[in-house]
Protein: arginine--tRNA ligase
Amino acid sequence: MLKSSVRPCRTMCAVYWFLDLIRAAPNILKAASRRLFSATRVQAVSTMAADEEVVGTVKDQLAKLFEESLRVTVPDQTDTDPLIAACNPRFGDYQCNNAMSLWTKIKGTGSAFTGPQPVGQAIMTNLPRSEMIESCSIAGPGFVNVKLSRQWIAKSIQKMLIKGIETWSPKLRVKRAVVDFSSPNIAKEMHVGHLRSTIIGDTLARMLEFSNVEVLRRNHVGDWGTQAFYKASKQRFDSDPGFKERAQQAVVSLQGGKEKYRKAWSQICEISRKGYEKVYQRLGIVLEEKGESFYNPYIPGVLEELGKKGLIEESEGARVIFIEGKKYPFIVVKSDGGFNYASTDLTALWYRLNEEKAEWMIYVTDVGQREHFEMLFTAAKRAGWLPPGDNSYPKANHVGFGLVLGEDGKRFRTRSTEVVKLVDLLDEAKSRCKAALVERGKAEEWTEEELEQTAEAVGYGAVKYADLKNNRLTNYTFNFDQMLNDQGNTAVYLLYAHARICSIIRKSGKDVEELKKTGALVLEHPNERALGLHLLQFAEIVEEACTNLLPNVLLWGQRRRQADSCCVKRLQRSCGNASIYLVFGQSTRYDILGEDSSHLQKDFDNYVWAHDYRYYAQCIRHCEKVKDCARTVQYRSDI
Structure:
């Protein structure tokens, strides 16, 4: 039991103990969960129903309550879904933001309501009683702010400790997804350019798997083309026109199934496969290879289908699909009759939709391939494979990422300007970690095997974390000294913190399993409640990271909110009293009108906290003489 009379440092250590159980003991939690379920099968149905209330995110549970209130408040608006989001702590824990949009729909229809604030007041009044809500209040034009019950927060965390963190996994709308990542080329060693796709793709797959999505992890290797015997042949391919022509014809023969080419190709693929499989083992990456060659037998049928639909046209000896707004066509058959990336990727997309029955296709490559995937997805929509909108399933997304830079601000390379091999990079990370451990005297305390295992765990973890803590769209500078620092925002610091927490648990002499069954969690100190609420929002952060395909949200959810709050102040200083337009995506716009700076700040703050953080915010100072904006300030939250 945690009590506020305990000194703050000891109190927080005790709370972190619970956090550690959530984060570091999945096997213990699963074992406890099995024992608990076997012992409680005879419980009453009412108890089971009470337990089920914990399933799903806090937003989901609040949405159910506000859905009941909305049915009573505006019975004619049957298509209204509750708009629930975490809000600024100055106002509460969560808020319902339906009042303004509802007022827009019902004003002028003879409704008894006189504005958005009375609508919000009615929504709050009609809210059914629940143990999860401590209090509610109205802010601005009808925002219903909710403060969660301290006892309910503690009870929810306690149940999670017993049943396991899996009970907190978010519920996504998709059941099966393909994550296409890593995708090295056969006959070419994996290099630093494959690092981000491999790390980001694996993380997205893990996030979706935690969210109960069946994930097909696909390694779309480049095993079909002119890259055989890569380095030497590439130089000759670029300098010798005759060799280039023979190589291109050899590719056509290979795709046509000619035996001698197939035999050489198979040997090259096997050697390459053994090489990059070692990298995956070191990084803990699991992938199923389905390279370009896998889809070759399906290409003619797919192209025939597209031709019958009138999408494919002849152009300068090649067969192409013209995409509106693009300077060049999407070439699906080259002038020499060979297939290419476009024909293979179209076929792979068709296969994933029709054979693998995937609802979400996620392609993790560098931002330089953005246009290729835009054309691919547009062609698929024209073919009727994908719906025209971006928010309906099945759907496809390109997850682009920036470059890995050296300290000179250029692409990360060796001193001889060669691309850095991924194996060499991992070796260096492990070597540096091992040297640091030896310097700390660990070689005398641990066995050589323990030293090696720890160096690998810390070194590889540091490389992964240095990538994942950044927004994937930005470039980042690769610096061993920074990523292996045991102070600041690094994996090394987090690992040491975790080790210290585990040490505290061991030294406490307490039986963790017994404590979970007999102890009671009481969140009396404000910091304890704040941490408890933060833990409860774990599932929502995972859901946001999955929805927006941004792994860094998992690491920086709270910091992003603080940054958004700073954004409010910057925009206010820039624009003063103004109308504010928040634009989410391409179609939805919310208007907020402020009479003075304080009102403007408050309303804008509410909206910032109420919606997806990937927004564009525009402050517009109206000009009486012209219809257009006199001044526009644009800010993108991209933490």
Q: What stands out?
A: The mean pLDDT is 79. The chain has 24 helices and 18 strands. The longest strand covers residues 133-139. The two ends are 37 Å apart (CA to CA).
